[in-house]
Amino acid sequence: MKKTVKTTTKKVAAVKAPKAVVEPKVKVAGEPKAKTQRVTFSVRAKEGSKVFVAGAFNDWDPTAKQLLDKKSEGLYTATINLEPGSYQYKFVIDGIWCADPECTDWVHNDHGTLNSVKNVV
């Protein structure tokens, strides 16, 4: 007697994140590791929003680094330790990907939108 197993699949909407672009780093044997710098990201959004920063520094994970509105004034901030380099990023505000409105350095991405760029020296 054959046993049949019924399986179901659930469709899940896929959202493609922008491709990560980081300038390549050449490591030399015996060279000390580059010092990281504390880099603060901030953006204004409606109070009570869920705000994240996604970029080359966290594999474009839209929920990896949450920004907090510590004073409940609509100013969301987070600090990340980054090595010297150039990092593309976007904010994710209530699930919507947004370029940093205060950043003047940006590049076009493969999705026809803009990525903000943070240069760490």
Structural key phrases:
single chain; 121 residues; mainly beta; Immunoglobulin-like; 6-stranded antiparallel beta sheet; two-stranded antiparallel sheet; 38% strand; globular
Specify the CATH architecture of the domain at 37-120: Sandwich
Question: Which blocks of ≥5 consecutive residues have pLDDT under 50?
Answer: 4-16
CATH topology of the domain at 37-120: Immunoglobulin-like
Order of helices and strands: EEEEEEEE
Largest sheet features: 6 strands, antiparallel
- % residues in beta strands: 35-45%
Query: Taking all residues together, what is the mean pLDDT?
Result: 84
Helix content estimate: under 10%
Instruction: Give the name of the CATH superfamily of the domain at 37-120.
Output: Immunoglobulins
CATH class annotation of the domain at 37-120: Mainly Beta
Intertermini distance: 69 Å
Radius of gyration over C-alpha positions, nearest whole angstrom = 19 Å
Helix/sheet category: mainly beta
Compute the number of helices: 0
How many β-strand runs? 8
**Shape label:** globular
